[in-house]
Amino acid sequence: MKFRNIILWIVISIVLTACGDKDKEAKKPVPVQPIAIENTEKTIEEDNERMEEAVSDSVEEVNEEEIEVEPLPQTLSELAALPPGHIEYVGILNPEEQKVMDELTKDLPNISGEPTQKQLDAYYNQLLAIFQQDFHGPEELIAKLKFQSIGSPDIDDPRKQFKENLNVLVLLDASGSMRADLGGQTQMDAAKTAITNFMKGLPKDANVGLRIYGHKGTGSDSDKKLSCSSSELVYPLAPYDQNGFQASLDKTNPAGWTPIQLALNEAQKDLAKFKGEKNTNIVYLVSDGISTCDDDPVGAAKSLYNSDITPIVNVIGFNIDNEGQKQLKEVAKATEGTYQDVQNAESLQKELDQAKEIAEKWEDWKKDKNTLLEWDRLKNWQAIFGYDTDEYRKRLDEGQQVGFALQYLYQTRKLMSGESHDYLRQKNRDYHKWIEDEYTKLKKTLHEMNNKKIDEAIQALEKKYLENTPE
Questions:
Q1: Each residue's pLDDT tens digit, 83-137
Q2: Does 318 fall in a domain?
Q3: Range of 116's domain?
Q4: Which of 51, 317, 385, 417 is the right S-S partner for 341, CB 3.0 to 4.6 Å?
Q5: Are 243 and 308 within one domain?
Q6: Residue 227 to residue 217: CA distance in whole angstroms
Q7: Is residue 380 part of a domain?
Q8: From CA 251, how far away is CA 284, in angstroms rounded?
Q9: What is the CB neighbour count within 10 angstroms for residue 365?
Q10: How far apart are the two ends of the chain, measured CA to CA in Å?
Q11: Are residues 279 and 341 in the same domain?
Q12: d(CA 224, CA 302)
């Protein structure tokens, strides 16, 4: 027993020395190797195991070859493809904020030992993912410029030329998840308000329509077939009538699953008699999640887009998760339309009002078809400024949030050494400086393009930013 105690004391001394003896002027840090003492006595082996568990919170054994470090984005398109994380600001000054920070960072590894550069790079990627902002790439801006160009005499694409009639059809998600609370009202109530304001603000000569989907049954498996076959044109395409439209909205309540393919297929039938030769057709798909009916929304979107209806299809993700965003962005891409993620009624209203501006241009064109509608360069300057301002704010927010987290984990939680903290802080500064430089280049390009005709500008932007983008 005495001999065993002596051995145990030696083990403790070795462990404490390995944890505490850090040479500040050492070469490149290396992982602490696990301590192994061979002994035939089972009790000593158990003591060793307990010692290794005791120090595992300070030094984590990692096989260097098993670490995979994904490269940081190399283009703005790759940056925009990253799934957003916790984008709301989290402070570190009071206990409540620190609780939130602890919860967000609880799965990060402890690097208070001497991690390698590869381990630090992997750690930074994990931390960055927690606070990843929802950046927008050139594709989304180009899609928006295309939509804003509808009616311009510079545009040769017949799809974007004004026709005798304007038809606007909204496809509204009525699945059960639209009951989610937005702080005093449900997502469905917020959507109803925004859509009503949008419809009544359109020109009186325009036809408006509202189709809902997923409004029957429940979210249970037994009701899936019923719900996935439910879609209804509650307000057929016609000039806006306040009483009739309100009545159609009042009977719309969130219920079941989300059949997006069905809604798009039925929209093609709704617009079948409004051929693209004489009609400017705009479709808005509003959904708060991925299609849940084992269907093919992207294929349905392509079919609608390539039909003789020649519609412009825009997609709005309403308070949606990353999986849903990915699918809806594919729908928008398939139709060369815009995709916008909105979080509340105000941002939904703002996005719908983009179509209201196009409708006002159409109304002016219809009054005097001989009047040339010039491409409004001032509005495009404003769009460029707004785009740049939004992305600049995201870059600042993300960089600062990661920096605050590093400061907290180093100074308060003592979960990393000074050397590790300094390395990660510098990596964070370099990365977000790269984002700033890339958006500065894009902004410069946009201002240069603003002096061209709109069709030339869009073609030049697509050539520069999209022609090498993988499908």
A1: 899 988 898 889 999 999 999 999 999 999 999 999 999 999 999 999 999 998 8
A2: yes
A3: 76-134+386-465
A4: 317
A5: yes
A6: 5
A7: no
A8: 20
A9: 20
A10: 70
A11: yes
A12: 25
